[in-house]
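Sorry, can you check?
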Amino acid sequence: MFSVDSFYKWTNQTYLEDRYYDMITYLPHGTREYKNLDLYEKHQQRKENGYNYSFVLMNDQEPVSYDAICAWKEQYIEYYNNSIYPLGTQSRYQKPTTLWAHYIVGYKKLDRIAPTNEYKSTDVDILEYFLNLTTDKTFASRVAFGGIYKPIIVHSELNSKDIAELSDEFIPVYVFYHGLISRDWYRHIKHESKPSIEKAINPKRFLLYARSWTGSREYRLKFIEKIVQEDIHHCIKHNFHCTDNEHDYHTFVPENLKWIVRNKELENYFPEEQIDSHASANINLDDFNTTGISIVCETVFDSSKVHLTEKTFQPIAVGNPFIMLSGAYSLRTLRRYGFKTFSDCWDESYDKILDSEERMDAVLKIVKYIAGLTRTEYASLYEKCIAICEHNQKHFFSDEFENYILNEYANNFKMAFKAQENDIFSGTWWFVNHLMNNVHKTNKFGEHDAAWAIDTLNKLKECDPERFKNTLINYPFLTASNLNIRS
């Protein structure tokens, strides 16, 4: 089973080291700003020049945010202008400081491309030049994340507009990340909890986890309000929190105004208890053993994307039925990975509803229906769920499920590498092309820089001969210079 660290280490060793890629993660996990980017391994046990490499961004834990990546341009400039250690080598975190990333902040002559007097002096403000040349997106991919290949972004979401927006500058690789990591987090549960008809006699028929309600989770307040309006809160175990991320729900205004709540007394209907923000990595068996059906409130609901996290796998791991508040076609996604859902027990057509408010109302209708069943009717319904829960729990802990995810991951990386064969984009040569021809107005490298360029091209020729040929074709200044490079 994969932990977070072992998954990253395995990915790095299996797919990246032999292809001259460096892995970039976020530290702390779950953050998204440029200052949180962390070089996973600083070329460990490598003698090659680090500037020959390209990058893979591991954006697998949290949903991808196109806006957050486009914000790097401003954050990058601020970070490198204010950093005591702009190279990242002496700071706590090792930033992905690329050749050009170094160069444009604080330098007017070549840095890694050597500061020699072989180049004509220039009064061009290099930073301003590349700010004007790039958009927020191309700055992220070509300057902050440039390399001898187009950067790869590993993600864990389907039907994503954010990924579609980035795919012309990044190569996406999908992995069902939380499917792997949840198996490690919950590995002990298979020995401690099994599906049981006895849960049908619990006074609380539903378990609802909705501790956070800001950001992409703002829809949760509206669902809680609807539960109270329908007078079914009494059969739901839920701990309500009046505050989240320094916001008080009494004055909170959601980004999507359709989620505004009018009832400002919600705390009177549920107990308020403190739940650790890291509780999702653990399972409170008492919560699941004293309820029957989980209402899974995923991180992403009010969106076209499907991004399933450990929240989905908690009821599966313990052997409980579940209803989902998540993106459309989430249930279909689970079935694709070999799980069974509960269409024989209640109406699951909500999974196909694209409008998020209509989908929420459809889920609420199911909850209200089940809440209104007599004890005998509910016990009969719950008994129909047992075989499905047994299958799901067994499948979740099976090698078959893990192998499916890993094979899919391998195929997606294979397609990403294939996509690079005829891809003319290269942050390295795009940057140097502009730097030499338009800033320094020369196509002749200085002695030190010629050695660097030759070394980089030879590494590319060794690991990817076709890409090497295409590089020379699409960047003619390389062969026109004094490098003596031949394809």
Observations:
- The two ends are 45 Å apart (CA to CA).
- The CA atoms of residues 251 and 264 lie 9 Å apart.
- The first helix runs from residue 4 to 16.
